[in-house]
Specification:
- By secondary structure, this protein is mainly α.
- The protein has helices at 18-23, 42-51, 62-80, 87-103, 122-133, 136-139, 166-183; strands spanning 26-27, 36-37, 104-107, 113-116, 142-144, 151-153.
- The chain is globular.
- It starts with 17 loop residues before the first helix and ends with a helix.
């Protein structure tokens, strides 16, 4: 089996929401191994922003991006496991959201959209996260991958999806089960 190393240019955008895809730029590799951080340099933040359609993104503060990412993951991992998010990550998220609202304007459309003259790539992410928190139907479908801890909106009909992707995490779990069964345990 050939495994291609994932990078900011090729990792799967499976979150189903801009904020969750941003949180997923930090991924667990295997048990006991360090996480793979796809935001290693300011250029990675710009590459990610362009990849998700934020064409006017300019380089942002990498430490602020990582702090927001950690906050989003903490908030939505808590939601996915039925817990109440801790106040500190919510405060971090709301601080970035407040900056986005203060610097932005609503532009007409169906629906109206946020627009920024000089967008910080973190602003649309914070707005998306708050919008997701305010959407009971979508929020109820936020899940945490049972294998890698990525977040995703479960769009399956019965809401029973357990993995970020059947092609990656689901296949790994099923292969481990198969091998264990073949070994007799």
């Amino acid at each position: 089996m050939v495994v291609t190393a994932r990078s900011i240019e090729n990792y799967d955008l499976i979150g189903g929401d801009l904020a969750l895809d941003f949180a997923n730029t930090l991924e667990a590799t295997h048990e006991g191994e360090p996480h793979q951080d796809h935001l290693r340099a300011p250029a990675d933040l710009v590459a990610w922003a362009r990849r998700v359609g934020l064409q006017d993104a300019r380089p942002g503060d990498l430490d602020a991006a990582r702090a927001l990412r950690a906050a989003i993951h903490a908030v939505f991992a808590a939601v996915a496991t039925g817990d109440v998010p801790a106040p500190a990550p919510l405060d971090t998220l709301l601080a970035v959201h407040a900056g986005a609202v203060a610097e932005g304007r609503l532009t007409p459309g169906d629906p109206y959209a946020w627009d920024w003259e000089r967008p910080d790539p973190l602003w649309p992410v914070a707005v998306a996260a708050v919008d997701l928190l305010r959407s009971p139907e979508r929020l109820a479908r936020v899940k945490l991958c049972a294998q890698c801890s990525w977040l995703f909106v479960d769009r399956s009909r019965n809401g029973s999806r357990r993995w970020c992707s059947m092609g990656e995490c689901g296949a790994q779990v099923k292969m481990r089960r198969y091998r264990a069964a073949r070994r007799g345990g």
